[in-house]
């Protein structure tokens, strides 16, 4: 144990690449300092560069000077001052596209919102030790964005905060690209509401760790904060208040803000369960609306589910889903599908009458309902996304490009893959950020949260995306995400409950199973880099939580047991 | 179960005193609305009223208009609009002292910093239903402050945010006073640093729930952010950085800010353990400084303890303790005393030589060390406070007014009381706010926090201060506190990890075992009031965490299982 730690310590001092998160696929570093010249410029060598690339360049240029993150070592920014005086100055970072990439230049937003399997995020990066120009080359503007994000993480401020420098030049990343295209974070904005500014700050942090997908669980039984064109009554009557609604402009603002930062937005309108709130405007479509005791009709209060056996309700649902989906650039759209409560329908006279009239079983009706909603989405060119129950617990016909969110247990991924369906790892036993904060239903002093214990970053970081899958099934894994259900969260604690924990999966799904030196990912070498990205987040106004006492953050390895 | 809930629901609708936290000892309410007149004034009927009382009145007056908290019911501020139009207007709240209290008027600060057993916090309050003047009467300015705090919690804003009103007039509190004088919160500012502004915001929230004591665990092995007159080197070399130091002016600022808000500040300089950082300026006084592996020498990294067997070290320690203690108005001062590691001294050649020279055992030397430090504090008129090990695990002679912090287990209070010593409940099994967030030492993916699980508000709220004590021992209980150790916390998450959870003990130790109607405290009726105080905190800029979905917060009882 101690010998192992000693070896890791030596390795860390040989490759003290503290800055980078997620770790690139290849990395060579030196030990020279290079400081940014006052004349430093980022040169975009692309004819008719898209505006969102120019904006990204501008943000990087600004952050190189405003991050003012001093190295996490004893002495902080002072520790390099002697060497810094002699360091060469970097005047230029050039961005360019490969000849293939230059043939069809698209905006970052356009690249980001391509089909999840067709996005190009790869790039190469060099930062010479002698002050000669640095470069990032990619096949797409999205790849250039990822390279810029890496570039920012190479730089630190000196103690005075006046000089920005890298300390590991020459730095060469021959090739970086994600192991999995879906690297996400899910936010529930229905249990409690999150203003647009809070979501944007979250997107900033996501982009910093190269996440590609924001899964927006926007509505649920408790509130309907989403404005849907043609269905204004849903949010007017279902939102917590008139100030807790995402207008159509807000939605576009969030989608655009995300897209130019390399993040596609997967909106979920959960159906047919988790829809009690729709009864406030459309009681005719909801079975067991606010029925009590709620625990007989739903996993959470209030009870209420769409009358899936009613053709009118299926049409209504398809209408609202397509009405919002068609305004969104993403190819992905989630219809939810979790936690369907059968008793709700058993007790609902109308559903029973509808089933009798159609001669269908509940499962057959669910299949028909799903064909209606998914068919409508597919007609828009969208790929449906569903929670795992729709694949594993129900007799629903799913098109083979449907994406399944595996959440109940990480163990269930294999069953989804066995059906030949694509999946996104969202397991509650690794990635649920809300676990471990006590029970929120009532006042039982002995109750813990249903998914106790707390899912630490260490736990999330050990997740193996390919566990229990055969070689031929690995292509079914699109990636994964950490998730925040917000029964006990709001804008007040979102930064600290999400960050830096959610960065754990960002690295697992970008870097893959091995570090550039071929060694497996491991928490001990990850910790100093995670400290680094956490401190950088704090510098950027994201209230990421401290992982350890600062004493430990400045002394890699010295607090390990 | 369901019948019980039904009864509680009926009780809640009879006494919907959602606003008050902690619940007063007596309370009678009506159902009438009274709004604040535009001419509303608080009249201080006290000759030569102390400035800090006038300032408190000013803060209350401001907050009555700036809180803008709408009632937590469906419809929020709109729900009372019809009745509000007809409501009488309140033009005056009068504050007065009893004739006994008027004889010797002291500032709130002076009352707050009296000996913990001699503070007078009681008050009475009336708010008539007809718009006639409201009144608060107390024996001291501190009692008036408590009454003002209650008064603020009676008022809500209408939907427009232009009218402030109470909805339960007439309101009569014949007598309110705390069951226990020590109602505290402990913050560790050594593992991670907290700027003064963050501490002040915490004090604001503490005052809102009538807490009386801020236990400031200001220094520890990891950093020494405290400026001690005559010992500037301790913070100059031991703080995390020059910007992470509490100057003497900062300390006075915090102490004064707390004092005028009814909160006495108990500063702790932990000794003889938890002192590694002193080795940065005084290596001669520290045994096993940063010895490795740290787990052989300390409960946490880095290792290091004062050389308690050295007379020079004892004198040095007494000197620094008295140097800071004499600048503080509080009668209480803590010398710590937790988690002493014997092996550290066994391995320390100097300590062994010192023991040999004096002919003392380590325990005898600890006793002598404690006599030196406590004697020096008593010479200043201070009452020493220590962690429970000093009373239960060591052969240390403690003066019988010493205050013992019981932390290892709530079960240990009985043993402390059996020794006739006074105690403050600080049990890790109920009141440690840091539990349940995973392990912070290293990268073990299977490890949970040492005091798992998370201590929910529901758990804290069931704490019985007098459990296992005899009737004659009850007077030894000064009160209790929730505590935040900050290995995994900083300014980023402090509000959400502290609030509203720490309000649980504030009510347990103010209200005592029973509510005004004689029924025992219970979480089910507490929840809507805790929502209320949490929402009020958020309105005041304290990022208190959501306890439930807002849907539940607006519908008392409907989310209970």
Descriptors for this entry?
hydrolase (chains A, B), 8-stranded parallel barrel, GH (chains A, B), 21 helices, Chitobiase, domain 2, 7-stranded mixed sheet, 17% strand, 561 residues, 2 domains, EC 3.2.1.52 (chains A, B), homodimer, TIM Barrel, alpha/beta
Distance between the termini of chain A: 9 Å
Number of E-state strands of chain A:
17
Question: In one word, what is the shape of chain A?
Answer: elongated
Strand content of chain A: 15-25%
Assigned CATH architecture of the largest domain in chain A: Alpha-Beta Barrel
* Secondary structural class of chain A: alpha/beta
- CATH topology name of the largest domain in chain A, in short, is TIM Barrel
What is the multimeric organization of the chains shown? homodimer
Sequence of strands across the biggest β-sheet of chain A: 8-9-10-13-14-15-16-17
Structure description:
The first copy, chain A, is α/β, with parallel strands linked by helices and 561 residues long. Chain A has 2 domains: 16-178, Chitobiase/beta-hexosaminidase domain 2-like (Chitobiase, domain 2, 2-Layer Sandwich); 182-512, TIM Barrel, CATH 3.20.20.80. Chain A contains 21 helices and 17 strands. In chain A, the strands form 3 sheets. Chain A has an 8-stranded parallel β-barrel, surrounded by 4 helices. A 7-stranded mixed β-sheet of chain A has the order 5-6-1-2-4-3-7. The longest helix of chain A has 18 residues, at 362-379. Residues 1-15 of chain A have low confidence and may be disordered. Chains A and B meet through helix 17, helix 18, helix 20 and helix 21 of A and helix 17, helix 18, helix 20 and helix 21 of B.
